[in-house]
Amino acid sequence: MKALILSIAMVVLGALGAGGYLLWVGDGPDPLTALVVDAPGTDPAPSMSSQTAPPAPTAETDRVASSGTPAGDPNPLRFGVPIDCTIGRDCVIQNFVDMAPGADYRDYRCGPLSYDAHTGTDFRLPSHREMEAGVDVVAAAGGTVTRIREGMPDVNFRLVGREAVTDQGLGNVVLIEHKDGFVSAYAHLKRGSITVQPGDTVAPGQVLGQVGLSGLTEFPHLHFEVRRNNQVIDPFTGRPADSGCGPAQTPLWSAAALERLLYIPTLVVRIGFADRTLNRAAVEYGLLVGDAGLSSRAENLLMHVYLSGLRAGDIARFRILGPDGVAVLNSERVIDRDAAVQLLRAGAMRRAQPWPPGLYKGIFTLQRDRAGVSVEAVRAEAEVAIR
Question: Residue 44, preceding bond cis, omega within 30 degrees?
Answer without folding.
Answer: yes
